[in-house]
Amino acid sequence: MQTPVLRKGVVALLASASLLLTACSSDDGPAAGEGASSPPASATSAPPASASPSADLPPAKGSVEVVKTLTDGLASPWGLAALPGGDLLVSSRDEATITLVDGESGEKTLLGSVPGVAPAGEGGLLGLAVAPTYGADHLIYAYFTTESDNRVARLQYDEKKPAGQQLGAPDTILRGIPKGAVHNGGRIAFGPDRMLYVGTGETGDTGLAQDKASPSGKILRMTPDGEPVHGNPEADSLVYSYGHRNVQGLAWDSGKRLWASEFGQDTWDELNLIEPGKNYGWPDVEGRKGEAGFVDPVAQWKTSEASPSGIAYAEGSVWMTGLRGERLWRIPLSGKADGEPLAAPQAFLEGKYGRLRTVLAAGGDKLWLVTSNTDGRGSAKPGDDRILLLKVR
Predict the structure, then answer these.
(1) pLDDT tens digits for 183-219?
(2) How far, in whole angstroms, is CA 319 from its chain's centroid?
(3) What is the pLDDT of residues 63-80, one digit of tens each?
(4) What are the CA-CA distances from residue 218 to residues 39, 246, 264, 266, 281 (Å)?
(5) CB 3.0–4.6 Å: which of 85, 225, 256, 300 could bond 47 by disulfide?
């Protein structure tokens, strides 16, 4: 089981508190931020990042229809994950709770609180993921902020216990990820290889993103027990990619390629096609620069138009939520090895539901969408926050 180390014998650096408030202009906008389990696979090597999607190409222009509001009245929702039967789990960043939402009726049942969570700033109870082995072990994975660090733990869900007491004690598989008032990352997801991927931020200490001995500003890849995976870019290291400012979304397309959304600083937010061992540039590069040694984003946005959070793949496109941008972006994929989109990104729901935090594939042409207006940076309206069911094309 992985303890506070990224490599065996290397202690993860804790970010300096004096840097907590630096450079977060686009992260959730001015103060006026699931992973779902994936199809099973037996291999433990990294998914092929250069494989082209096998599905038919999507149309250049898409559409979004809001089918219904599944549930509302959620407080600071952040992570969303689907159980095998279709019900949803949603985390509350600030209340440190996990709630079960019936996938048909929207009825909410509090499963319990996660002990040890210390919500503050952009930290708290963040991403959720359901174990690929859930049918046998009922394990839920969570990324959260404590008084000293960010960590990943797994909890057992026992539906036979009374409501509010259905979560077992956290079993920490990774600790020592530096924490900050900003840039805590937090998105986690199981990939097609059944390994756990974790998106982290650099906590405002920009140099950590380029330091491969630190887990900050990285995408990490590990076994369900928190150990480095055979086939990772470097032996005994969890680091899958580096040079990230604040990874907020993780999703795989039909070709098993990993995509990630990322907050920019003042100029460009990014959608990246992730390849193992590659350097995505921060803090040396923001947006497309064409500089040797760094990977340019596949798509970029002005920070006022995006401030991206969760992403999902459906109907041949990557769908990306916007916090400050208050819209859902559609990026149709061409299947080209370099990830070049088939057409320009297209925006939907602009300003209609406020800040958008998380999106999750719901099968076929459906998506779950979570709003984020009760997190202290949005303008909450009656009924906020809510989970919407979308039909997309």
Answers:
(1) 999 999 999 999 999 999 999 999 999 999 999 999 9
(2) 13
(3) 999 999 999 999 999 999
(4) 24, 8, 14, 20, 11
(5) 256
Handedness of CA 226, 230, 236, 238 (dihedral sign): negative
Q: What is the CA radius of gyration of the chain?
A: 19
Pairwise CA distance, residues 118 & 176, whole Å: 15
Structure tokens, 93: 């960043």
What pLDDT is recorded for position 20? 36
Query: What is the pLDDT, as a whole number, of residue 132?
Result: 98
Q: Which residues contact 161 (CB under 8 A, 6 or more apart)?
A: none
Mean pLDDT confidence for 48-59: 63
Work out the pLDDT band at 56, boundaries 50, 70, 90. confident
Residue 214's contacts (CB-CB under 8 Å, 6 or more residues apart) are: 6, 12, 13, 178, 208
Distance of alpha carbon 41 from the chain centroid: 21
The Cα 326–Cα 349 span in angstroms is 8
Sign of CA dihedral 373, 375, 172, 259: positive
